[in-house]
Amino acid sequence: MLSWVPQQSILNLPSSDKVSLSAFSSHPFIVTGSHRKWITEKKYRGIVLKSVLAKVKNPPSPTPEALVKERHKYFDEVIITVRAGDGGHGAVLNLPNQSAPSNSQGKFERQKTKKKSSFKRDFDGSLILPLGGHGGDVVIYADESQDTLLEFHKKSRHNAKRGGNVDAMGVLSSQSHNGLAAPTLRIPVPLGTVVKQKRGKLLADLARPGDEVVVARGGQGGISLLEMPEHKKKKMMSLTTNVMRDDSDKVLVLGQPGEEVSLQLILRVVADVGLVGLPNAGKSTLLAAITLAKPDIADYPFTTLMPNLGRLDGDPSLGPGQFSSEATLADLPGLIEGAHLGKGLGRNFLRHLRRTRLLVHVVDAAAEDPVNDYRTVKEELRMYNPDYLERPYIVVLNKIDIPKAIERLPNLTEEIQQIGSDKTELNTGLPLSSDEDEAEGPSGERKIKEIEEFPKPLAVVGVSVLKGIRIDEMLKEIRAALRSCRDDISS
Q1: Global pTM?
Q2: Distance between CA 354 and CA 384 in Å, rounded?
Q3: Beta strands, E only, 106-152
Q4: Cα torsion at 238, 239, 243, 245 (round to 10°)?
Q5: DSSP character at residue 127
């Protein structure tokens, strides 16, 4: 911050003082009466530079009320801190006083004394001294029973337990044991969670059930040392190297600290099919009609605030192989123009299309301009990530039970089928293990194609989800498109 502050006038200085205006002139001069008039005609002002370092603060954690009212803002991304357990401490031990058994002792007493004095030894005959327990590791794993990351906003710090200390009472014996190792702290997250370090390095993409990653290692336990008189050390060195030489060796007894890291968790919904379209186009109604999902359905825009998942049953005509044709569908919140720039709810959820193999564009055939609505959604997908338009997709013209829609259905179908090129090479989806972050537009100097340069839809189907008209035909097209996607992947 710059501020202009007038400095103390040199006219206020005593007349006998010598003043050096080195900031303005390299020649000192004396303020005398003869010069006073010349000085009064000059106004010297200094410049004071004041700089303030602004510290960027992390956004405050959402309040419980915000988590309830605005779950869609927090359900798919969170920053947490995890700390592995410290290692347990070792001990400084002494050898017990071992007096030679006298001949007066009976055979039973001599055997008992010999048994007590036997220590644990390695294969080479050296003594085995107890160690402190290993600190607990921290593992994050994919759990099918989890569906959001909201719980991590309520508890953002997770600590594993420390290892147990060596409990030897200061004397080495055959009963001395290692400290107990601490259990591993296992943290469940939803399928599709990407685990990154806070600064951006990818650690794991937990896309499948049972996938896991160790994000923090527990500390090693401390070792135990033998303390004995100086004249015995040389002899004991042949039995073990853990003989304490001076007090500085005691640092080896302490367990090592566990790792502490800050992590960014990002949820990318795992689904085979993504339903996209403008608000109130009928995506949630379609999902509820063909799966057992029960999303919120109403006659106003943005009813869907969070992605809804549903399971599409297999094709009965395939017989025993019908289960191979099952698929997961994701109903995403409606996109509006400018969604890729953060308008509406689109930008928050466009990342969830990343794993989909097939897109279903749901268009309201009774809207004022259905073709323009279709183009609007495709344009938002293109601006966010052009790869989304390279994937196989079909177009569902919904609400054909309305007279206005059924009349222009043939023209709409023909016009939409003409949008795009005849290119047949389709991108069936990005790899699940990709470490590339969400695309936010074109990267580098890659040429941006127009909508007409991307592939045409595989099919355009007119349906009425609410009335159940032509639903079977739509399902047939979806299953056929999914089979072609899987065939391309397997080949």
Answers
A1: 0.68
A2: 11
A3: 138-142
A4: -10
A5: B
